[in-house]
């Protein structure tokens, strides 16, 4: 269902535990924005900007474009600049490796990629993404160092929140990851985000909504919850702080009839292409 497209001490601890590199900068990868330098003012979780519950939302992870005048919340990939004057959510693929990043993971952190008993990478075939190995505390900490660097980059760029994708990767892990692994890693990410004054959103995995809310998650990004009859799980946990994205016009119409004005609701094309490209669809209730 997913539309995928921090501090120095945490990085150092992770590298020491796993032997995955000789410098903290290695953990941040070559794609995206590195963590701020020590001269950058530290953001404080007490100063986090309030989430605009039920605000008009625009999902731009497939390419940035100027949002319409009434849009309050914009979600963009971490490699893109935030939208001026909006509440900005930074998309981060936190549980799987982007196809373009796989070579970096294999070269720099090969032991952080999930493998089967024969040593073959376990791949999410829908998106051609290798799963990250969050099966042990040491590996979770090491991967959190990498992802935490990306979170810091989001904060430094001016984003207000992050939404780490592929929380449900354990369901595609061929039994090598558990729900408990996903929840433990999610809790790590929440702590890192809040240290950088970023709110953090749960992406999909409705069955974990109550547990993640209890772990400090601030809002939810739910794809196709109308189709899968999961929307109540999110609203029960997060109230009106839910972003709902539907990809079917029929399901969107039903969602609007049920939750118009109560959550942020958007109909989008499944490829989430930028405005002006063929196939672009974006509609609010």
Automatic annotation (TrEMBL):
Supply the Pfam families for this chain: Glyco_hydro_114
Indicate the segments forming the Glycoside-hydrolase family GH114 TIM-barrel domain, all copies.
57-274
TM ranges are none
- Answer whether the UniProt record assigns the keyword Signal to this protein: yes
The alphabetized UniProt keywords are: Signal
Show which residues constitute the signal peptide. Answer: 1-23
Please report the name of this protein according to its UniProt entry: Glycoside-hydrolase family GH114 TIM-barrel domain-containing protein
State the organism named in the record: Allobranchiibius huperziae
